[in-house]
Amino acid sequence: MSDRFQVLVKDVMAKPITIAKSAFVSEALEKMLGEGVDPLIVTNNGTVIGTTSRAAIAETLGSRKTQALKATSIHVANTVEENFTSAYPDQSIDILVPLLQHYKLVVVFDAEHRLIGQVTAGDLLKVLRPAGGILEVMEPAHTIQGEERAVHLRRRMLDGEIDRFIVEDGDRILGIVTETDVAKALHAFKDLVEETHQDYRIRNLLVRDIMTAPLISMDADTDVSDVIDLMLKKNISSVPVRQSGKIAGVVTRNSLVQAL
């Protein structure tokens, strides 16, 4: 039996990071950024009822239903995704691979169904790493011009189910923009810009105004383990791959788990 089957869920799980459904989304986003996690486990009177993510918060903050509300007055309950999965601590680590290929987080319960841990792609990648080269584990790279409006970016994210774009100025790479950048920008606007000016200001916000720069990337001949180590050290969810001076694709935590 290989070492992979000797490792149990309890050997890789981390302390669960939770938030109450009655908390405000501003608090949830602050906890995600501070703890470097996404998503968060949502509880109601100590019972797990689902998760909330940066993408869900961005979608809620950008909704017309919450247009007149500040982030400090919108409850986490409005962003809860009830579809989550779970495991038990004494199960083999092998069960985590298919689960994390479909979910961003696995909730760990004890025999009495009490919450005792969580496992994310990052936790799994500390002990399991895909074989092959970096080109075999990357996803297609999607690009957007820095002068595009952020509202168009958000629409492309929602319509195409895309969570990150490489930002360009013509053929020149400027940075990257993710769901996190969108959530942070909408949160800031909700709390800093007067309600009467929000719609105008948001519609004139450009992608380059909210992107993350400079871009952290790696060459196509980089070892997969080195890419994973960088992602874990920098607490980032993706690394664009350069080949022949151009972006060939993006390695993400999800693409790495899919390759296991």
From TrEMBL:
* InterPro entries in the record: CBS_dom, CBS_dom_sf, Diverse_CBS-Domain
Q: What is the name attached to this protein's record?
A: CBS domain-containing protein
Keyword match RNA-binding: no
Show the Pfam families listed in the entry: CBS
Q: Which UniProt keywords apply?
A: Amino-acid biosynthesis, CBS domain, Methionine biosynthesis
In the record, which residues are listed under signal peptide? none
Organism phylogeny: Archaea, Methanobacteriati, Methanobacteriota, Stenosarchaea group, Methanomicrobia
Q: Which domain of life is it from?
A: Archaea
Q: Which CDD domains match?
A: CBS_pair_SF (cd02205)
Domain CBS, first and last residues per copy: 137-195, 211-260
Q: Does the keyword Electron transport belong to this entry?
A: no
